[in-house]
Specification:
With 123 residues, the chain is of the alpha+beta class. It contains four helices and three strands.
């Protein structure tokens, strides 16, 4: 049975260590990362307006629209919950796939362009 390594594990079973002899600001980066508190607001008590998040993500998806065999696609590099909400609204294909991008529906293309112009247009 094949066993996959977990991050920080070596094939011989010992724990890997950060490289020694690093120069400059990166010398203690591994210590800084260990004490890093993730700033994402889901873990805080902040109320989140998911509708605004969805609008901004649609606007940002517009930035990376590309054509693939006649269909418009966008890279799915945003929060999974938000991408799932956009799918439920009918703007994109199901993001739960092996593909690195999602299909953008005609309605999604229209909405994304309008939101991009609203949030980031200079007019």
């Amino acid at each position: 049975k094949k066993r996959y390594l977990v991050p920080g594990e070596r094939r011989d079973g010992a724990q890997s260590r950060p490289p020694t002899g690093t120069i400059g600001a990166n010398a203690n980066a591994h210590r800084q990362l260990a004490s890093f508190e993730y700033p994402y607001p889901k873990g805080n008590n902040m109320e989140i307006n998911e509708e605004k998040i969805d609008e901004v993500i649609m606007a940002l998806l517009y930035l990376n629209f590309h054509r693939n065999h006649g269909a418009v696609r966008a890279w799915k590099s945003f929060d999974w919950d938000a991408m799932d909400r956009l799918h439920k609204k009918g703007f994109i294909s199901d993001p739960k796939s092996k593909a690195k991008s999602v299909l953008v529906t005609e309605e999604g293309q229209k909405v994304a362009k309008e939101l991009f112009e609203e949030y980031f247009g200079s007019r």
